[in-house]
Amino acid sequence: MKTIVCNDCSSKSFAYLTQRQAPRTHLVLVRFTVSGSARFLSHMETLKVLQRACVRAGLHIEFTRGFNPHPKLSLPLPRPVGLESEDELLCFRMVWDPNGSSQGDLQSQIKNKLQEQLPAGLDLVSVRFAEANRSIQPRSAAYVFPATLGTIDEELREAVKHVLESESLVVERTAGPKSSTRKVDVRRFLKSIELQNNQIVVKCEITPSGTIRVEEILELLGLEASMLTSPVRRVSVQWQETW
User: Fold this and answer.
1) Is pLDDT larger for residue 96 or for residue 183?
2) pLDDT of residue 19 exceeding 50
3) Which of the listed residues 133, 164, 189 is the one where a domain comes to its end?
4) What is the pTM of this model?
5) What is the 3-state secondary structure (H, E, C) of the chain?
6) Are 115 and 123 contacting, i.e. CB atoms less than 8 angstroms apart?
7) 118 and 160 part of one domain
8) Residue that is last in its domain, among 116, 133, 150
9) Within a 13 Å sphere around the CA of 40, how many CA atoms are in the beta-carbon half?
10) Total structural domains in the chain?
11) What does the alpha-carbon distance between residue 200 and residue 205 come to, in Å, rounded to a whole number?
12) Which of 182, 194, 185 is nearest to 157 (CA)?
């Protein structure tokens, strides 16, 4: 049997299998965190950093077709600029040799090789495989707003109560600098708001039609950036695998 190995990687785990045995493709799910100065990367900038890291790491992932092929990666849940996160997800499909390293060994290799190519502030948590025909969708997320001393007072408690008891919460959104505004009812996206010590924990639904934005939560609760001691953090995401 003939194998064609990626030039940037000596391991047969990253090989294409040809002729008698069909390649075995897996969906690779990479969970990572975003902190420090990396939080100022936009969604597209984060994606480009990860694309380049995958190429430099020698990971044999699927590429787009055409005159300018590039690695096919996706970040299913965009992260707003300035937001830290403890639960980001990178998805890509990769071909590997089932007669080579075990899945556990390959997952460890991917994690180590990829982490070496990432800048400070992007740290890998885990790597696992899923069936290639699966897709990953976010269903809910939790955010932590670290408040300054004295911010959580009776006025804020009343604001939280008002928000949760409201049947409708209409906000205005602008898609771009030249776009017109539109009104969106975001009440259905709010699951809960809890005041814990000096933290405001907000849990949100994520649907195919969208979700509530961090700046909208701040506005609804009457909070300003000066009332927070550190950046807002996305602390957990519920991910769902679908066919």
Assistant:
1) 183
2) no
3) 133
4) 0.84
5) CCEEECCCCCCHHHEEECCCCCCEEEEEEEEEEECHHHHHCCHHHHHHHHHHHHHHCCCCECECCCCCCCECEECCCCCCCCCEEEEEEEEEEEEECCCCCCHHHHHHHHHHHHHCCCCCCEEEEEEEEEECCCEEEEEEEEEEEEECCCCCCHHHHHHHHHHHHCCCCEEEEECCCCCCEEEEECHHHEEEEEEECCEEEEEEECECCECCCHHHHHHHHCCCHHHECCCCEEEEEEEEEEC
6) yes
7) no
8) 133
9) 3
10) 2
11) 17
12) 194
Tell me the mean pLDDT in the region 104-115: 91
Least Cα distance to 114 among 14, 201, 228 occurs for 14
Provide the residue range defining the domain that includes 78: 3-133
Kindly state whether residues 128 and 230 are assigned to the same domain: no
- Please state, in angstroms and rounded to a whole number, the distance separating the CA atoms of residues 55 and 24: 20
List beta partners, residue 92: 28, 73
- CATH number for the domain harbouring residue 56: 3.30.70.580
Give the number of other Cβ atoms within 10 Å of residue 196's Cβ.
Answer: 9
Please answer whether residues 200 and 222 qualify as being in contact, where contact means their C-beta atoms are separated by less than 8 angstroms.
no
Per-residue pLDDT band for 161 (boundaries 50, 70, 90) equals very high
9 with 129, same domain: the answer is yes
Strand partners, 27: 93, 130
Mean pLDDT of 204-227: 95
Instruction: Answer yes or no: do 159 and 88 share one domain.
Output: no
The per-residue pLDDT for 95 is 78
Backbone angles phi, psi at 86, to 5 degrees: -105, 5
Residue 12 has pLDDT above 90, yes or no: no
| Model pLDDT, residue 17 | 36
